[in-house]
């Protein structure tokens, strides 16, 4: 396997991630920042991002709560534009060892070249710098 070729002993630790959903909604009217915060709390989340350019709000929720959340969004008169899953690391780690950095860099580049791989989730700080490592 690719892991063995890159000299990795361990992989696939899914329990270190939380499955979340980003739900983007169209803002159907003008809201003040305070009203958006109140709306978010009424919907059951404190995690949201406002894209002022497109008049959209994106809520981040635990995947287990998505059905009830979407129902509440519709009850508040908002239109859901998109919904996407992602995995958020519960704990980030730093890699300092140059040999490990090189192995991870090679491994990530090899994953990127596989057509079967659509997403890679990791819990490594500064992954962009590690991938650039030669």
Instruction: Indicate the percent of residues in helices.
Output: 25-40%
Strand content: 15-25%
Outline: elongated
Distance between the termini: 22 Å
Q: Can you give the mean pLDDT?
A: 85
H and E order: HEHEEHEHH
Low-confidence stretches: none
Strand arrangement across the biggest beta sheet: 2-3-1-4
Count the helices. How many?
Answer: 5
Number of E strands: 4
- The radius of gyration over CA amounts to 19 Å
SS-based class: alpha+beta
Largest sheet data? 4 strands, antiparallel
Report what the structure shows:
- The protein is α+β, with helices and mostly antiparallel strands and 134 residues long.
- The radius of gyration is 19 Å and the shape is elongated.
- The two termini are 22 Å apart.
Question: What keyword list fits this structure?
Answer:
34% helix, 4-stranded antiparallel sheet
């Amino acid at each position: 396997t690719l892991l063995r070729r890159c000299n990795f002993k361990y992989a696939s630790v899914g329990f270190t991630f939380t499955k979340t959903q980003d739900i983007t909604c169209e803002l159907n009217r003008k809201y003040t920042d305070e009203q958006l915060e109140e709306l978010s709390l009424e919907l059951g989340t404190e995690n949201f991002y406002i894209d002022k350019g497109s008049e959209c709000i994106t809520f981040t929720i635990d995947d287990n709560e998505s059905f009830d959340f979407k129902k509440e969004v519709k009850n508040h008169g908002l239109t859901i534009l998109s919904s996407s899953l992602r995995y958020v690391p519960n704990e980030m780690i730093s890699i300092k060892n140059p040999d490990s950095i090189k192995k991870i860099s090679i491994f990530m580049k090899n994953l990127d070249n596989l057509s079967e791989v659509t997403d890679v989730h990791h819990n490594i700080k500064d992954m962009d710098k590690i991938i650039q490592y030669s």
